[in-house]
Amino acid sequence: MKTLRYTPIPASFYQTVRDTLASRLPAGALVVAHANDVYPTNADGVMQHHQNADLHYLTGIDQEETVLLMRVGENGQHEDTLLLRETDERIVIWEGARLTQSEARDISGIEDVRWTREYQSLIAEAMQSVKYVYWERDHHPRRYTYVQTRNERMFAAFQANYPDADMRSLYPLLSEMRLVKGEPELVQLRKACKTTGEGFAAILPHIKPGMGEWEMEALLSCEYTRRRSRKFSFLPIIASGADTCVLHYISNHKVCKDGDLILFDIGAEYGGYAGDMSRTVPASGKFSPRQKAVYEAVLAVHRYAASIMLPGVRKADYERRVRVRMAQELVKLGLLTAEQVRQQADDPTCVRKYYMHSVSHSLGLDVHDVCPADPVFAVGQVWTIEPGIYIPEENTGVRIETDVLIHPDGVEDLIPDAPLEVADIERLMQG
Ligand SMILES: [Mn+2]
Questions:
Q1: What are phi and psi of 314, to 5 degrees?
Q2: Contact 192, 198 (CB under 8 A)
Q3: What is the Cα gyration radius of the chain?
Q4: Distance 362 CA to ligand 1 centre (A)
Q5: What is the per-residue DSSP string for 356-408?
Q6: Which of 22, 117, 157, 176 has the most crowded CB, counting CB atoms within 10 A?
Q7: Parallel, antiparallel, or unpaired: how do β-strands 396-399 and 388-391 relate?
Q8: In sequence order, which residues have a C-beta less than 8 Å from that of residue 185 and are 6 or more positions away?
Q9: 339: CA distance to ligand 1 center in Å?
Q10: What pLDDT digit, counting tens, does each position of 88-131 carry?
Q11: What is the overall mean pLDDT for the chain?
């Protein structure tokens, strides 16, 4: 595809996704999903476009102002229409090529591709026979924003025009579908994860005391971009010294010092899919005995978590068991007393003093991907595993994070190229 940096998923996958969605919708349903807006900065500036994940999942089209309309009939039959931003010579000269109708057809597998100016008339025509309207909504449990998305704005405009329409959300269905990854999605995710780990391993030998966190960010950006990633999958955290204990540190402005730990929480995107990895390394290339003890404790908890992430396990129970394991390590490190832990034997929430986040989130088109209220692990799901111990009084924070795919008998590490063991990290940094 001449306009894409990445190799796209075959159109047959998106056709299957739409078939599955339609088979779960009642006859008489209309599906509406809009692209995300291009967000403004100031003056005539804009941010890099980031596609709506549901629209990407249903069509593969990564372009602003795109709309998917699906009309569902009996027995899961469906007629799909894709609306594209009309391209013209002026747009080609100033912004570069946009998808032609035939390119969009090839990517999405949708035969009926039109320009967006037909949107209102197509909606009006559909509404003569439609019984239910399933709109793209985002009900992620941790979503919080003042900004109205394009889908929300179009939803409000639609409701003003059709106040009696039976409006429903696509979110429950799509989040259930997106949680289990299809084979073609795994190709993209593997590439995102491989890029994330390989890029990190490539810069590790160059890290020395006196280096700026921003310089490490620059090296990583180079390694990711040359592997055809279009951006970091989230703002990279490169935190040295005391800031290893700041969970969402992103200013990356300090110079790392001899004796510091450096915590990387980084990811490359590929084809819209996100990698997400954390590693903690000593600036000097050698862990101090205490740093090594904390590191080994986090690694032990990481191994334990990976060993109990099995199909059929409730995530809430998994998180609780990881806290039980973490409590043992915190006692060994002298951070909690055995007595404190004994009082909360079933669920030692006292670990939150040093380990305050959860251990896993799902991963896919979004870094914190779709997640039902009470998820149960299943084959084909992709999760992070990221325990951490943060001791501000010692300027010591360690997080170790891998991305894993759940198989029937256990998990597969999707980032095998980034070192995990103390000896491997030290060898790579000193070599
Ligand atoms: Mn993560």
A1: -75, 135
A2: no
A3: 24
A4: 9
A5: -S-S--B-SSSSS----SS-B--TTBEEEE--EEEEGGGTEEEE-BEEEEEET
A6: 22
A7: antiparallel
A8: 9, 13, 273, 364
A9: 32
A10: 888 778 877 789 899 999 999 999 999 999 999 999 999 999 99
A11: 96
Residue 246's φ and ψ, nearest 5 degrees, are -95, 110
As a CATH number, domain 11-179 is: 3.40.350.10
State the Cα torsion 195-196-200-202 to the nearest 10°.
Answer: 0
> In this predicted model, what pLDDT tens digit does every residue of 41-58 receive, in sequence order?
999 999 999 999 999 999
Distance CA 227, CA 72 (A): 40
In percent, how much of the chain has pLDDT > 70? 100
Query: How far, in Å, is the centroid of ligand 1 from the Cα of 414?
Result: 14
Q: Distance from the CA of 128 to the center of ligand 1, in angstroms? A: 46
For residues 423 and 295, the answer to whether their CB atoms sit within 8 Å is no
Instruction: Report the separation in Å between the CA atom of 263 and the middle of ligand 1, taken as the mean of its atom positions.
Output: 13
pLDDT on residue 1: 56
CA of 43 to the centre of ligand 1 (A): 34
List CB contacts of 267: < 8 A, sequence separation 6 or more.
Answer: 192, 196, 232, 233, 234, 236, 274, 275, 276, 277, 367
**Among candidate residues 208, 182, 272, 280, the one with its CA nearest the CA of residue 237:** 280
CB atoms within 10 A of CB 317: 13
- 383 CA distance to ligand 1 middle (Å): 9
Domain boundaries, the chain: 11-179, 183-430
CATH of domain 183-430: 3.90.230.10
Distance 127 CA to ligand 1 centre (A): 42
Please give the helix or strand (H or E) that residue 425 lies within, else none: helix 422-430
Instruction: Check: CB of residue 373 under 8 Å from CB of residue 141.
Output: yes
CA 387 – ligand 1 centroid, Å: 10
Query: For helices 315-332 and 289-308, what crossing angle results, to 10°?
Result: 160
In percent, the amount of the chain with pLDDT more than 90 equals 92
Give the HSE-up count for residue 134: Cα atoms under 13 Å, Cβ half-sphere.
Answer: 21
DSSP 78-134: EEEEEEEPPP-HHHHHHH-PPPPHHHHHHHH--SEEEEGGGHHHHHHHHTTT-SEEE
CA of 403 to the centre of ligand 1 (A): 8
Task: Look at phi and psi of residue 142 and say left if phi exceeds 0, alpha if psi is from -120 to 50, else beta.
Answer: alpha
